[in-house]
Amino acid sequence: METGGTSSSGEGFLSRMALNDNKAGMEGLDRDKINKIIMKSSKGSRFYENEMKKEQQVNQRIERMMLQKSHITEQQLSKAQTQVEKMTFDLDRVRDLSRVIVHVDMDAFYAAVETRDCPDLKDKPMAVGSMSMLTTSNYHARKFGVRAAMPGFIAKKLCPNLVIVPTNFDKYREVSAEIREIFADYDPHFLPMSLDEAYLDISEHLEQRRGWPEVLPCNTFAMGLLLVILLGIAPNMMLAKVCSDKNKPNGQYRLPSNRQAVMVFIQDLPVRKVSGIGKVTEKMLGALGITSCVHLGQEMALLALLFSETSWHHFLDISLGLGSTHIERDGERKSMSTERTFGEMSALEEQFSLCRQLCQDLAQDLQKEALKGKTVTLKLKNVNFEVKTRAWTLPCAVATTDELFAVAKDLLKTEIDNVSPQPLRLRLMGNLNLPSLTGLNGVYRWKKILTITFHICCIY
DNA sequence: ATACATACC
DNA sequence: TACTGGTATGTAT
User: Fold this and answer.
1) Closest CA to A333 of A368, A300, A361, A298
2) Which CATH architecture fits A72-93+264-320?
3) Nucleotides of B under 7 A from a protein CB
4) What compartments host this protein (predicted)?
5) Domain coordinates of chain A in residue numbers?
């Protein structure tokens, strides 16, 4: 069932372009056939060329790492080993198995909501998004290799009958608010990660019902049409997240709160399944022969010598099945940004006017939360998909359109001057402001629109 | 602090 | 024809 990612061997195509079948609903697909279509649609494009460049950079990074590895002595390794063992011992000693953390994930959320509103879609391959980009796909579509973060025009080649529905964020927000009310019944301090995902700590909830059969929201929420909720239940957030993905497309999975069960669960878990390990880290670890979490534990001394402290500590936690045991809503936000993609833009007036518009949009967003920021970052992406960021930090925090534009236009001007007399051939501009100062969290107030009923069932 | 990369949804 | 947008954080300088 596991592929451990997309780079099973040295095929002649880019691992970063190939189908990412890491997510559920993509098992047993004809990956070769799908990848051929993806490659055919992409090859030669500017996007593809840029991806190729990025992949070369990753390869170089791996080469540097392997060179570094070749210089490691037995002595260094055994010293690191001692350090790792001590740390492992300490971590294990304070392991907290007392909490019951739930990761909730609404399966193919946007697609499910759209299907509720248009039941005809139920039996058709469909995706939400546009010809440029898809955000979700239903299970029929996944069978063709169609998935989130894939451009619609490629998805159409994989599945000519694919129905693409435009996104309706307001609608998803409404449904999300409904679901969140239920989450709050189980944990008033639940942590929303996005419209369709959240972490809950149900330890208290269970404690209050001691002696009762253990109950949790089951996987089926009836809302005009079925909305499937996936639950992962485990002693910490990292494991809960992995668990919620375990029984897709319909189910819940509970990992018991004992060390033995956790360690068995971790053994064969591909590193890519862990949140925070993406395709680059997967590839780097793969170069060291590490594909599953056991390997991670076995090679920890080596990892301690090759990676930064934060990285290998993270790896160590993963290899021991450790994760955060108390969920906390994020404090104040750390940044706010806005960016836009468009057809090639080379005219100066247009570029400056867009820059001003972005500053205005950002100023508006900042105002909504009564925030100001000190660092203004200009982000540019040219028609070859190359990204540049240029930042300037001010002595005082700013928030208005004019204040932002005063900085952003200089940053933009500098970049234009740098390439002149050639024009900047842009496809994206963005404007990022890193706030400090005043933070006010908005209060959610949503009307109840749907009736939600849900099953109660035992989780054992 | 700045630039760029990675990751998540 | 067509490959997102918002936020956080890691890596490197």
Assistant:
1) A368
2) Orthogonal Bundle (1.10)
3) 1-9
4) Nucleus
5) 72-93+264-320, 336-434
Report which residue is nearest nucleotide B1 when distances run from CA to C1'. Answer: A393
The length of chain A in residues reads: 460
pLDDT digits (tens, 9 = 90+) for A14-50: 788 888 877 777 777 788 899 999 999 998 999 999 9
**Residue recorded with tokens 């997240």:** A241
Task: Report chain A's mean pLDDT, rounded to a whole number.
Answer: 87
Q: Provide DSSP, A320-374.
A: TT----S-----S---EEEEEEEEEE--HHHHHHHHHHHHHHHHHHHHHTT-EEE
For the stretch A432-460, pLDDT in tens is 888 864 432 222 222 122 222 222 233 33
In the annotation, is A282 catalytic? Answer: no
Residue A326 CB closer than 7 angstroms to strand B? Answer: no
Of the listed A11, A197, A214, A369, which one is catalytic? A197
Rounded-to-integer distance, Cα A76 and Cα A348, Å: 56
